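Recall that a protein's primary structure is simply its ordered list of amino acids. Everything else, from secondary elements to tertiary packing, is in principle encoded there. The following example makes that idea concrete.
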Amino acid sequence: MTGTSIPLSEAVNGSTLRISGIEVQGVLRRRLLDLGFVVGNVVEVLRRSPLGDPTAFRISNTTIALRREESSLIYGECIGGGES
């Protein structure tokens, strides 16, 4: 699976991804960049809420919950982890 970019919304719990692209625009883009969602940074999928939305991500030693609407616009390459 290495080398294939997938939206963060499709990553499984426990997986680690390297951010390869962000398609968010405007104020939300600036906020995500400030929080560490920058191309090249590593993000870990911690867990999904019981209904599947939002999802908690760890990036730059910070836990951040994003809605599916937002996380589907951030792409990453799987570099490890994940549930079977």
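The chain is about 15% helix and 45% strand. Residues 36 and 60 are 6 Å apart (CA to CA).
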